[in-house]
């Protein structure tokens, strides 16, 4: 499976896809919404403010082109690393060093995800949704979400799928791009 930014300058390949993914997930949290507001990419939020993410293992990702277009944002000094592109302002992936999780945003997948993965398998953080989220969306992270994601995470830990990550240096913790950490004013402006 290949992924790419909107203009195609950034491209990457996901090995072992879709076998090594828990499927389509939607998060309604305020961090995901703030990030897309900050990028001025509200168009990627669903009607209730949800962000669709499809995870892969960092070790299964190979950047093919456009590394020079990557930028990194963190919503706080301890926040997740959120990579996007400078060429066309496409959010690419949310990840964290030494974790077997690279949550690629739905917009970067180049082929029919609906047909390949089927419907959304889990929704979380409904308390931050705009309006009424789809039926069954939990307020936080519930048992269904846990059962959907934990086998993926455990397998990733056991198989050491957090490294190498194309988004972090060889040490596994230093991001390949210096992150811009949002100030309180920037964060407030993106709410």
Spatial separation of the terminal alpha carbons: 33 Å
Rg (C-alpha, Å): 16 Å
Task: Just give the CATH class.
Answer: Mainly Beta
| Strand-residue proportion | 15-25%
Percent helix among the residues? 10-25%
CATH-scheme architecture: Beta Complex
Number of helices: 4
Instruction: Output the strand order for the largest sheet.
Output: 10-3-4-9-8-7-6-11
Structural domain tally: 1
Largest sheet features: 8 strands, mixed
Order of helices and strands: EEEHEEEEEEHEHEH
Q: What's the CATH topology label?
A: Metal Binding Protein, Guanine Nucleotide Exchange Factor, Chain A
Structure keywords:
191 residues, Metal Binding Protein, Guanine Nucleotide Exchange Factor, Chain A, eight-stranded mixed sheet, three-stranded antiparallel sheet, globular
Explain what you see.
By secondary structure, this protein is an alpha+beta fold. The chain has one domain: Metal Binding Protein, Guanine Nucleotide Exchange Factor, Chain A, CATH 2.170.150.70. Helices cover 19% and strands 24% of the residues. It is built from 4 helices and 11 strands; from the N terminus they run βββαββββββαβαβα. The strands form 2 sheets. Strands 10-3-4-9-8-7-6-11 form an 8-stranded mixed β-sheet. A hairpin with a 6-residue loop joins strand 1 and strand 2. The longest helix has 16 residues. The radius of gyration is 16 Å and the shape is globular. The N and C termini lie far apart (33 Å). The model has no long low-confidence stretch (mean pLDDT 93).
